[in-house]
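Supplementary Methods, section 5.1.

A reviewer requested that the exact input to the structure prediction be made available. We therefore reproduce it here, unchanged from the version used in the analyses.
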Amino acid sequence: MPVDDPTPDPGDPPPGGDAPRAVGGYRLLRRVGEGGMSRVFLSYDVAARRPVAVKLLADHLAGRPEFVSRFYREARLSQFLQHPNLVQGFAAGFDHVARSHYLVLEFVDGPSADAVLAATGPLPVGVVVRAGSDVARALGYL
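The structure derived from this sequence is encoded token-by-token as follows.
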């Protein structure tokens, strides 16, 4: 499904297990990542008419203040810090209907570094140097 057509096909399964179809006014289209603290979905910002990534705090951590606090600290920093080599944060909140803490981020399309390395093996030196320079610029900014 193209990102600019956010209407889910009625035959599509939910975006992942018991995940809601929307949070905070953002339509969840499909899960693109998962970790110990959260799940990340390719989503659609209806108001801004753009793809975004929506990160949902894991349900088992939602009742633990230290993890909720860490989640919102990430949200504040992602909105405050602006650099071409950092993912930009747009919004965060708690959706009472979906009962989920969410963070809305810039959607960066493409495979993970692990997927690229698994598919191609070692990368050419020039590619590694360019990626390392990008990371160094981001760290220098931080």
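The CA atoms of residues 90 and 104 lie 5 Å apart. These observations are discussed further in the main text.
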